[in-house]
Amino acid sequence: MQFGITRAHASVLGPLDPGSASLLRLLDGTRGLSLLYAEGARNGLSPADVDRLLDTLAGSGLLEDATGGGEAAREVRQDAELMDRLRPDLASLALLDRRPAGAVEALAARTGARVLVRGAGRVGAAVAALLAAAGVGAVEVMDGGRVEPADVSPAGLPPNAVGARRAEAARRLVSESAPGGRRRSRPEPAAGRLGEAPPPDLVVLAPRDAVSVHAPDPQLAEPLIAAGIPHLYAGVVETTGVVGPLVLPGRTACAGCLERYRVEREAGHARLLAQWRSGRTHRVEPLDLALATTVAALTASHALSLLDGHLPTTVGERWEANLPTLAWTRHHLPTHPHCPCGAGTADNWHPAPLTTAPSTPRTSVTRPPVREPRQGPAGHVRAPGTITRGAITQQT
């Protein structure tokens, strides 16, 4: 019997006797252990047989405990609106965290996370909305000025926000996007006074001007470097979408490292930087709406990956995609030995998972053959009880 569809997550359980196969189909979240023992007995299985099957499923990351986890997980389950909105996200997390209660614990961690987004243009506002909608408990937005018609986006600021202060409009967007009773967008922190509020778990830097996307100013990130706060860059330069780098202070390359290498290796770069940063005009900058939305979505996904305890590929990397082909390319950013960020001694640092790896599958669970399996009925996460996760496909 096969669980899952794609090669990344599919596993084959077998061989199975008829009684075990019948019991598997009863693991739908509606039965506790005592009822499973009774159902097993009707199928010729002893309690030890049932325990052995459940242990195999749990050890292979195929079992979801719909009542497990700590107090934070319990609070998440009790938030009906949150669960209704994010049930598909919870099912996705279950494929990434194979512990029996890992998915709901990961979602609970999201609800306790705080993210600061700097920039409320087409990219930044959409990033903030996506993070709030995905369950991040506190999403704050910093930006100046007022919303212009060109800031409006289906994924970001709405048409009725035109003329409003950008920061205030973004806060309303975050509040409206968040599910359940977790709308906790706080007032905008004063510029340069980041330390007065609890430090964010992540800062997303999504400037509205192309120069700041192409050549981010290292001085703006100095407080983040000093405080050890991870920060992720994103934006659009002309017709190029940019996601990354995700900076882990003291461990990976920062904006200062990038600028130093460019100055050393690109003739005239320092002079160009001075011209770009001093020659601001009021001309309309190119900014494709679909590209900006794509960048925002990918940025939000990388941010969520970090918040969920993983290290996405933007760590020390800058991803770029150009219109019209949209082929994504990644550029490694080496640390600079003379950058004051202190990461220059970490060139040999290799990212390692921040979370415990899933349990090693038991011998009765194997990866499927290379061919794509046929799709079977999808399983669902329901409480209370113990359930299997993923799609189930009969092997022929």
Task: Identify the notable features of this structure and list them briefly.
396 residues, alpha+beta, Rossmann fold, 2 domains, seven-stranded mixed beta sheet, four-stranded antiparallel beta sheet, 13 strands, 14% strand, disordered C terminus
Task: Give your account of this protein's structure.
With 396 residues, this protein is α+β, with helices and mostly antiparallel strands. It folds into 2 domains: 2-85 and 369-393, no CATH class; 112-346, Rossmann fold. 36% of the residues lie in helices and 14% in strands. It has 13 helices and 13 strands. The termini are close together.
Q: Report the CATH architecture of the largest domain.
A: 3-Layer(aba) Sandwich
Helix content: 25-40%
What average pLDDT do the residues reach? 83
- Count of runs of 4 or more consecutive helical residues: 13
- Here the CATH topology of the largest domain equals Rossmann fold
Structure described in brief:
This protein is of the alpha+beta class and 396 residues long. Helices cover 36% and strands 14% of the residues.
Layout of strands and helices, then pairs:
Elements: E1 2-3, E2 11-13, H1 18-24, H2 33-42, H3 47-59, E3 63-65, H4 71-78, H5 80-96, H6 102-111, E4 114-118, H7 122-133, E5 138-142, H8 166-177, E6 202-205, H9 210-214, H10 218-227, E7 231-237, E8 240-247, H11 255-265, H12 269-278, H13 289-307, E9 317-322, E10 328-332, E11 365-366, E12 386-388, E13 392-393
Helix pairs in contact: 4-6, 5-6, 7-8, 7-13
